[in-house]
Write a structure and sequence with these properties.
With 159 residues, the chain is mainly α. The protein has 9 helices and no strands. Among the domains are: 57 residues; 53 residues, Arc Repressor Mutant, subunit A, CATH 1.10.10. Pfam families: HTH_18.
C-alpha cells in the first residue's frame, strides 16, 4: 500500500491571496476609466476635455455666485453631467469645482472691498457673494490673499 502525501493545507491568507490575484487580473482587463497608461475611454475623454461644456459650467456658476447654497451637485444636475464628470472637467484646470466656486467668490469680494469703500461692512461683502459666515469668509480670505479683509481694504487705501 502506497501512502499518499496529504494535500497542502491553505491558510486563510493564502486562499485570499489566490483569489485576489485573479481578481486583480480581471480588474486590469476590465474596460473603464482606469486603463493602462491612464487613458480614458474616448466618450469620457470628450466630456473631460470639452471646452464648450467647461465655459457653460463656468458661466452657470458665475451667474449664481451670490447663492450660498450653490454646490457642485447643483451645478452638475443643471448642466446634465454627473458630479464625477464635473470634477474631471475641472481637473483639466488644475482645480476642483468647489475650489473654483470659492475662488471666484473671493475674487468678487476682493474687488468689492476696494470698490465699495468703508461704508459697507466686510461681512456684508462676503454675504453678498455667497459667504454669509463672516468668520469663514475672513479665514479663507486671509489664506488666499495673505491678510484679513479689513487690512486688505486699508492697504488698498480705501479705509
Amino acid at each position: 500500500m502506497t501512502v499518499r502525501p496529504a494535500p497542502p493545507v491553505r491558510t486563510f491568507g493564502e486562499h485570499r491571496h489566490r483569489r485576489s490575484s485573479s481578481h486583480a487580473r480581471q480588474t486590469r482587463e476590465a474596460p473603464g476609466p482606469a486603463r493602462p497608461g491612464g487613458r480614458l475611454p474616448p466618450a469620457l475623454a470628450r466630456v473631460v476635455s470639452d471646452p464648450v461644456l467647461l465655459r457653460r459650467v463656468k458661466a452657470f456658476i458665475d451667474a449664481r455666485l451670490a447663492d450660498p447654497e450653490l454646490t457642485p451637485e447643483q451645478v452638475a444636475v443643471a448642466n446634465h453631467v454627473s458630479t464625477r464628470q464635473l470634477y474631471r472637467l475641472f481637473e483639466t484646470e488644475g482645480t476642483t469645482v468647489a475650489r473654483w466656486i470659492r475662488d471666484r467668490r473671493l475674487e468678487r469680494c476682493r474687488r468689492d472691498l476696494i470698490a465699495d469703500g468703508v461704508g459697507v461692512g466686510v461681512g456684508v461683502v462676503g454675504a453678498r457673494w455667497g459667504m454669509p459666515d463672516s468668520s469663514y469668509f475672513s479665514r479663507v480670505f486671509r489664506q488666499t490673499y495673505g491678510c484679513p479683509p479689513r487690512e486688505y481694504r486699508r492697504a488698498a487705501g480705501v479705509g
